[in-house]
Each structure stands twice: as structure tokens, then as C-alpha cells.
Records
---
Amino acid sequence: MPSFWKSVLILAMLFIIFYNLLYVSLQYGFDFDTYFTNYVSKNISKFVFANVLSGAVYGFVVVYFRFYRNLKNQQKKNS
């Protein structure tokens, strides 16, 4: 089970990074100073909460279904 949570954490971090880079590129044209001034610094608690929650949910769902599929495949091989 430790590999499950490690995978969730890694995927959550990658999702947060990718999502924020995409958001900065589309909304601010890669102007990180404006992004941090207008979005992050004014709503730091909202920013952290939303990123951690969305990353955790995305990571958990994706990794859960990947592990579930592998478990089902192993059960089919054993039967």
C-alpha cells in the first residue's frame, strides 16, 4: 500500500504544477509576477486549499483505478 499513496502524492503534485502552468499561460500569458500579485498573494488560503484538494482528488481517483485494474487483472490470471 505505500506505493499507492506515493503514487497519489506524485500524481497530485504533477497535476498541481501542470494546472497552474496552464492557468498562468492562458490567463496571464506566462507573466508570473502578475499571477502572484493578482491571484496567489490576495487569496493564498484559497489558492493552497484549492490546489491541495484538487490535486489530492485527481491523484487518488486516477491511481485508485489504475491499482484496481491491476488487481482485477491479477485475479483473472489466478482464476
---
Amino acid sequence: MTFLQTVFILIFLLAVSSCAKLEHLDEALMLKDYASSQDATLASVKEKDRKFEELLATAQKGPETLKRYSEKKSFLERFGEPILKTPVERDDRTLESWLYRYQVKYFGPKVYVFFDDKGRFVDCEYVPAAPTR
């Protein structure tokens, strides 16, 4: 095989392999976007868990320590969105219960926060993690 034939074969192989790369470019970009979104999701979970740990430490000291966050808005600013909001009957009135817990640890500790119909803080309840077997 001559030098010219070798160069021609190398150029042909380079062109064919480049086309294959371009053919799968969409899939490669989609995988890159998926990896980036996974990184953002992980960062969000870590931030929410950090805020929950702050709430947990405060709630373990008793409901009085949370009274400075007297309204929903200030509570949300400090501790973020709860996992779940539900109406509950408590002391002959309807309150809104907010559940906070770790984002992916379902059987860990929990904090329930209660607000009245005007959006004012009423009480909180700390529930320790269930013992593991």
C-alpha cells in the first residue's frame, strides 16, 4: 500500500467517524443535560435538608423557640417549603399543618408546624425518628 493510499484511507475513516459522532450528537447533549439536572437536584436536596436540620434543632428546644417566625411568610423565608400542607382539627379549630422532614429519608425525624386561619404560628410538634430494628 502506497503512502497516498494510506492517507486516503485515514481521511475516509476520519470522515466516517465524524459523521457517526454528529449522528449521535442529540443523544450526547441530552445525556449532558440530564447529568446537569441531576447535579442541580442534588444541590437542591442538600439545601432543603440543611434548612430542615436548622428547623429540627430549633424545634427540639420547644415551640417557644419558633414563635419569632410568627407568620407563614417569615417561616417560609427561614425554613423553605414544607413537604406537605394539610388541614387538621386541633383544639376545636381547623389549623393548617405543615410537615417538614429530610427530603429522601422517609423514616427519619419529622417536625409538624401549625398555623391558624390567619396564617399565624400556633404550635409545632417534633416527632423523633422511629427506632430501627
